[in-house]
Structure formats: C-alpha cells, structure tokens
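User: Can you help me understand a structure? I only have the sequence.
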Amino acid sequence: MAVKAIILLALAHLTTAHFGIEYPTWRANTLLANTTYSQWVYPCAGVPSNLTDSPRTDWPIAGGSVKLDLHHKWTYVYLNLGLGSQVTNFNYSLTPEFWNVTGNGTLCVPKLSLPADLTPADGTNATIQVVTSGASGSALYNCADITFRTGASALSSGECATDAGITYVPIKQQTTNSSATTTTPKGNGAATAGVNLAALSVAMGMAVLFA
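Assistant: Let's start by predicting it. Here is the structure, written out as tokens:
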C-alpha cells in the first residue's frame, strides 16, 4: 500500500512538473503518457528535427505570439531561437530578461520582439526553444518550428488570453548591492524586477547554461 502511494505521488509530480506549448504548434506532444520523449532532454525533449509529420507554423517576420501551458505554481521561462530547418544552435534569445511566472495554467504573450541584429527574410525557417525551470531547479525543454512570413499575424486578443491569476515579470540583472526595481511593464500584467543573476543561476541548477 505504501509503495503504491509513493508511485502515485511520483507520477503526480512528473505530470505537474512538465509544460506544453500551445502556440506556435510544438514539434510533438511530449506530455503523452505513451511517448518516448522526455522534457528533461536538451534541446527539444528528445524530439528530432526531421520528423516527416512535424508541424511548422507561419510566424510574423518582426516577432509574434507565444502561448504556453504551465503546470508549476511558479516558473522561470526562457525562449531561444535558432535559424534553419534542423536547428542545433539556439543562439538568439527572445527573453534577454527571462520571465518569472506566477500561477499555473495558460500564459499568452501577444508579441515577442526579435533581437535587433536579427532580420530574417520571408520564408526563413527557424525553431523556438522554450526552457522552463521550477522549484526543483532542473531545466525542461520543448520546441516549436516556425517559418517567418511577412503576411503572418500575431494572435488576436481573443486567441491570446492568459488565465486569471497568472502574471509574468521579466527579470532584470542588478548589481549585488542594488535593490530590486520595477519599471514600465513590457506586456500584459508584466513588470520588470531586479535580481542578482549569478546567485539565481545557482538556484536554478545552472539551467540557463543549457538554454
């Protein structure tokens, strides 16, 4: 009886510890019970980039929406981007100030801007990598393949709805002796707070090094 209870608790932990990508469409559903994929595996939960039936979403050429299904009560979120059809190097950050998300459920950000030095041409293939880290400090991974299109649009306000009680705060680096600050919000329900990133990276099990 005790063994059964422990197994059930472990399974419950594994279920709640994971996350999904609702938009752009993720490469594969890594939450399925019968899947061989694991969100613990870098860079894309073990899902190969050459799947024949893998979806690829048209995404605005100047940046678009991202919609996540988060299962933790709080989560650190990083979004990275790599160019190409079979990406191995996610060398662009879409969240130079990564997010501290409070609440579990659906988080939708209407528009993520691209880095200033990235100007993809129409038809350029790319992959968005989403990395999360929760209370355990271990990183989880999922990927969504996209094609940059001049005619693509961000999600509408009706499509890009965040569940009640969920907020995200972009984290801004600060010096050790400075205090946390709040500046102009960067998105719906978002503010910017200061943090010592060196100390935080240790607390997150150095997940940022693999993002």
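Now, to help you interpret it: Helices lie at 2-16, 197-203. DSSP finds two helices and eleven strands in the chain. Let me know which part you'd like to focus on.
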